[in-house]
Amino acid sequence: MLVKLYAPLQPGSKEEIRLLEAVLYTATVFGPGLTTLLSSSEDKSSIIKELSTAAAVFARFKANYSYGLISEELGVPEKTVRKYLRIEDALSKAVSDVLKKLEAGNGFIEVDIPDVESYVVKLSSLERENNELRQRNQELETQLAELRGKLELVKKHLDEVYKML
Fold first, then answer.
1. From which domain of life does this come (predicted)?
2. Which of 9, 76, 93, 141 has a beta carbon 3.0–4.6 Å from 80's, enabling a disulfide?
3. DSSP states of 78-128
């Protein structure tokens, strides 16, 4: 589902800063760059937390906050603020790219938010398949136990035959 979001490019109030921050965060979450980052990372929750911080940094920077004020308001080191604004990593690049698209659209950006209903249908299908596989696995384990029992009987019979010979 394509959604058109708006945020002020030069926020003048706390509310406008939060709006820009939310749009940067949302558009980055549903953008292609984050999927790549998440798939290559073990700690997905830290990436989401960093994304939140990066979006907050960029929003406050667009509101003409100084590095020190951004640092103080967000409770992060000034070094972190500078790192994001210098675009030294893939995460800050993803947020920066969203900001550029937002600027190119004069404050508007279209975000493709996946249809949740298709995921629900897929999940239901996978749950059914999982249950079928569990049932089949149980049947195979039962057959395996039976075969092991028969194998033990065969071994005993062979031992008896060897003793007779």
1. Archaea
2. 76
3. HHHHHHHHTT-SHHHHHHHHHHHHHHHTTTEEEEEPPPHHHHHHHHHHHHH
23 and 107 Cβ atoms separated by less than 8 Å: no
Beta partners for 111?
Answer: 3
Q: What is the pLDDT of residue 3?
A: 87
pLDDT beyond 90 at 142: yes
> Are 82 and 40 in a shared domain?
yes
pLDDT for residue 65? 96
- The tally of domains found in the chain comes to 2
Q: Is 121 exposed, middle or buried (0-12, 13-18, 19+ CB in 10 A)?
A: exposed
Residue 76 above 90 pLDDT? yes
Are 6 and 80 contained in the same domain?
A: yes
Amino acid identity of residue 27, one-letter, is: A
> Residue 146 pLDDT more than 90?
yes
**Is residue 138 located within the same domain as residue 162?**
yes
The answer for 21, left when phi > 0, alpha when psi is -120 to 50, beta otherwise, is alpha
pLDDT at 42: 74
